[in-house]
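pasting for ref
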Amino acid sequence: MHQALVLSALALMLFVPSLISLAAVAPAVRRAAQPAP
């Protein structure tokens, strides 16, 4: 039981920063993908 809690906390600590960085990078990538007017 305790091990599962530690594993889920570890997964969260790895998953959340990647999600945040993805959310930060996505608009820039979308803007770069659009052709310049």
